[in-house]
Each structure stands twice: as C-alpha cells, then as structure tokens.
Write a structure and sequence with these properties.
Structural class: alpha+beta
Number of strands: 11
CATH architecture: Sandwich
Number of domains: 1
Number of helices: 3
Shape: globular
Order of helices and strands: HHEEEEEEEEHEEE
Helix content: 10-25%
Largest sheet: 5 strands, antiparallel
CATH class: Mainly Beta
Length: 153
C-alpha cells in the first residue's frame, strides 16, 4: 500500500512539472518532498525526443544529478564518496514528448551526505550529465526551483 501511495504522489508531482520547474529547451525538472522522501522528476516538455540518464546517480563526475542545498548564503555540498559505475548505453532512456522519469531519494541519506543539522534549508535538484556527449544524450543543465526543507532532528 505504501508503494502505491508513493506512485500516486509521484504521478501528481509529475503533472505539475511544467508549471513548477525551470525548463531548458528540452527538459523540465521538479523536486518535491513527501515526509521522509525527496522526489525528483525529469520531463520532456518539447516536441522532440531527448535521451537522458535513467539512473539518477548522485556523483559529480559520472552522475547526472546533484542537490543544491542552502541555508541563507551557506552552501552544503555533497560530502559523500561513492564508487560509481561508468555509464553505458543501457544507462540511458529516450523520453518522447510529454514523457517523464523520476526517482525517490530517502531524506536521511541526503541529510547524511550533505551533513545537515537541525534547521531550515532550501533544496533544488540539478540535472547535468557529464557523460552525455559520449552517448548522444542531453548535454545541458536543468535546475529545479528550490523548495523549503526543514530538518527537526
């Protein structure tokens, strides 16, 4: 039942993507929160198909997504280190016009990776694929509008 509820939430979020995100020429990006989860949705808002990463890997070199977390003027970068797999052709998906893809992230993982303490922040997602050129993927950068994120523990 919980899985079904999360799927409904993701669908509702996805319907609001074009209105609530900052769009590039081809993509729009939306970040939202539901209790202990952060949802990131990428939507193809144009008339042409576009190739994007489907793994939503949080890595500055090989990944396609980062979170920009701020508290006033202070930025909280991702301090975690992973050993990512280098992307392959199967890491990508072609989004047809109007199609979406999304991923859910556990807030606790984000909190730990960015070393967040109790307080209020803004969080936005940034889609940027440094490996896109090698796979004829979307090479631009798309940033979601920030949302408020308060940590009480």
């Amino acid at each position: 039942m919980k899985y079904f509820q999360k799927q409904i939430i993701a669908f509702v979020i996805a319907m609001a993507v074009p209105v609530l995100s900052q769009a590039s020429d081809e993509l729009s990006l939306k970040v939202s929160r539901d209790k202990g989860d952060i949802y990131v949705i990428v939507a193809n808002t144009q008339d042409n198909a576009v190739k994007v990463r489907k793994d939503f890997l949080l890595d500055r070199i090989f990944g396609s997504l980062t979170f920009d977390i701020r508290n006033h003027a202070k930025v909280f970068p991702d301090a975690s280190h992973i050993n990512p797999e280098v992307p392959t052709e199967s890491t990508y998906i072609i989004l047809t016009p109007g199609q979406i893809i999304g991923h859910m992230f556990n807030l606790q993982i984000i909190k730990n990776a960015h070393m967040l303490t109790k307080g209020c922040y803004t969080i936005s997602a940034i889609y940027h694929d440094g490996m896109a050129k090698d796979f004829a993927g979307f090479e631009g950068e798309v940033r979601s509008k920030p949302i408020s994120l308060c940590i009480d523990k």
